[in-house]
């Protein structure tokens, strides 16, 4: 596996991958709509094919990981992508990296906590509001759990 910074040359292929994974190039997190197309990030590439990607948005001294996805779980791809994003955030002068996940995603909660992120806030009904912006957000997630709320995780740098 190789990690590539998302550049103008690779952006189209990475955005196609993300649209397949998320249903569009728009993410709704923290109550706002964010288009992935213009964000910084990294792609995991195997045999010329994108198998994972992370996108992030730096605002002042904080960095939001907007999306993180890997088709090859438990092989270190997500960890490598997240580590690259955290390193990039440090390089841009950020003092904190944060992200949102949903109430159904217990695997993500474990994943982020193992990598130094701490649960910082709970937003009841956030996903129900997000569906007004992005109706394709699924109603149920892992193990048939209704997707309703967002949890914010933070990591101080």
Task: Walk me through the structure.
The structure is a single chain. The chain is of the alpha+beta class. The protein has a single domain (2-156), classed as Gcn5-related N-acetyltransferase (GNAT) (Aminopeptidase, 3-Layer(aba) Sandwich), CATH 3.40.630. The chain is 28% helix and 38% strand. It contains 4 helices and 9 strands. The chain has helices at 11-22, 77-91, 106-114, 126-133; strands at residues 2-5, 26-29, 32-35, 40-46, 49-59, 62-70, 96-102, 118-123, 150-156. A 7-stranded mixed β-sheet has the order 1-4-5-6-7-9-8, with helices on both faces. A two-stranded antiparallel sheet has the order 2-3. A hairpin with a 2-residue loop joins strand 4 (40-46) and strand 5. The mean pLDDT is 94.
Write the layout of secondary structure elements.
Elements: E1 2-5, H1 11-22, E2 26-29, E3 32-35, E4 40-46, E5 49-59, E6 62-70, H2 77-91, E7 96-102, H3 106-114, E8 118-123, H4 126-133, E9 150-156
Keywords, separated by commas or semicolons:
157 residues; 9 strands; 4 helices; 28% helix
Strand line-up in the sheet with most strands: 1-4-5-6-7-9-8
Report the end-to-end length measured between terminal Cα atoms. Answer: 26 Å
Beta strands, count: 9
SSE succession: EHEEEEEHEHEHE
H/I helix tally: 4
Q: Could you say what the CATH architecture is?
A: 3-Layer(aba) Sandwich
TL;DR of this structure?
The chain has 157 residues and is of the alpha+beta class. It has 4 helices and 9 strands; from the N terminus they run βαβββββαβαβαβ. The chain is globular and about 40 Å long.
């Amino acid at each position: 596996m190789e990690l590539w910074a998302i550049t103008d040359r690779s952006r189209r292929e990475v955005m196609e991958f993300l649209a397949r994974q998320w249903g569009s190039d728009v993410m709704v997190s923290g109550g706002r709509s964010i288009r992935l197309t213009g964000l910084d990030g990294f792609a995991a590439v195997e045999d010329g094919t994108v198998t994972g990607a992370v996108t992030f948005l730096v605002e002042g001294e904080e960095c939001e990981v907007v999306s993180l996805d890997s088709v090859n779980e438990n092989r270190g791809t997500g960890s490598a992508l997240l580590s690259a994003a955290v390193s990039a955030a440090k390089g841009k002068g950020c003092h904190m990296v944060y992200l949102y996940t949903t109430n159904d995603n217990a695997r993500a909660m474990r994943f982020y906590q193992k990598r130094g992120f701490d649960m910082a806030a709970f937003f009841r009904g956030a996903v129900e509001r997000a569906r007004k912006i992005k109706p394709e957000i699924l109603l149920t997630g892992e193990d048939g759990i209704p997707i309703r709320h967002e949890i914010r995780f933070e990591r101080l740098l």
